[in-house]
Amino acid sequence: MAGAPALYAYAAARGVPFAMPGKLVVAVAEREVGALAALARTARAAGVATLARLAPEEARALEPGLGPVAGALHSPTTGIIDAHALMAALLADAERAGAVFSPRSSVVGGVVGRAGGAVLDVDLPEGPARLVAKAVILAAGLGTPRLARRLSGLAAGAVPPGAGQWLAKGSYFKLDPSTSPRPPFTRLIYPLPLAGGGGLGVHLTLDLGGGARFGPDVEWCAVGGVGEDGILGPPGTADPAPSAARAASFAASIRQWWPGLPATARLVPDYAGVRPKLTGPGEDSADFVVAGPKATGVPGVVALFGIESPGLTASLMLGEAAASEACGDDDQGWRDGRQLLDCGL
Predict the structure, then answer these.
(1) How many domains does the chain have?
(2) Which terminus of the chain, N or C, has less C-beta within 10 A?
(3) 281 plus 294 within the same structural domain
């Protein structure tokens, strides 16, 4: 629960654009009311204090465009943020603290030591190099399992069993404005999460420019969808383009909670992304894994697996968790930067 407040505070302090339109999670049928209640219990157990249970008429009073839903959860503090501005602010802070950003560089191998740290073989734009580090955090998104397997000396089982086995592609669509007006919603609208752990369902998301889009759906991609060069593989494995042929299924999903979607509306592909998954089709979702030294078997070596949505919301807290594990600092007194430099981060 600490992730969102930390992100809002950081964005306000750094001038990163954001807004808090709020969100409704809706049960579209009576059979989903039990799942809605279970989701509310999970949220309370995680420390979410602002979530409110709404009766059908209360949900439709907030968003008249909704269909005859059976109930909803209202999250008034759910927000949207300029992700690129956030990344630029984080990079600026890191460089002011002495970090060096080296894009288009690849860790091609290395050895982690029992005494801690690692020797990394890196392909830099200027040529190959060897780096010696007291602390290493593997946070390569889709490529973290592959990167971990390039390093010798990690403990057996350091990579979670499902990591690298499955990827989930999600496409987003938007409405062609010539065939339909903008969706009549001021908040994000979510169905209940998909059974089987695939995703959150096709929902309405808003952007800071006033745009609206729908997504993502789930297309399961077997291992091999990401090549050694980090580029998505051929169509049929994990084509990086949004899947235009899925427009009809999108429309059907949207009409479950927005029956007023015009019959003449045309959904057009917007963009797509691929999420790292720790579980496959039909399995329950797994939480993020921050594998600290106890899991990797090496002091100072931490690996992050399965970081998908809401990884951006939790990014500051994930960074704190990873740095604390890498530095072996349980009280997180490294926040002033001094101990981060001492431990090589």
Answers:
(1) 2
(2) N
(3) no
In a domain, 45, yes or no: no
The string of pLDDT tens digits covering residues 35-62 is: 999 999 998 988 888 999 999 999 999 9
Range of the domain at 223: 161-285
* Burial class (CB within 10 angstroms; exposed 0-12, middle 13-18, buried 19+) of 12: exposed
DSSP 282-325: TSPP---EEE-HHHHSSTTEEEEE---TTTTTTHHHHHHHHHHH
pTM for the model: 0.87
* Omega before 17 within 30 of 0, i.e. cis: no
Closest Cα to residue 301, out of 129, 90, 110?
Answer: 110
**Pick from 302, 329, 317, 330: nearest CA to 47:** 317
Give the strand pairing for 219-222 and 166-175.
antiparallel
Task: Tell me the sheet residues that pair with 205.
Answer: 213
Which pair of tokens denotes residue 327?
């530095």
Token representation of residue 308:
């998908």
Maximum average pLDDT range among 64-73, 237-246, 311-320: 64-73
Residue-wise pLDDT tens digits, 122-158: 999 999 999 999 999 999 988 899 899 999 999 999 9
**What DSSP element (H or E) covers 215?**
strand 212-215
Same domain, 268 and 182: yes
52 CB-contact burial (10 Å; exposed 0-12 / middle 13-18 / buried 19+): exposed
| Beta pairing partners, 120 | 110, 131
Question: What tokens were used for 40?
Answer: 């509310």
Which of 202, 204, 206 is CA-nearest to residue 192?
Answer: 202
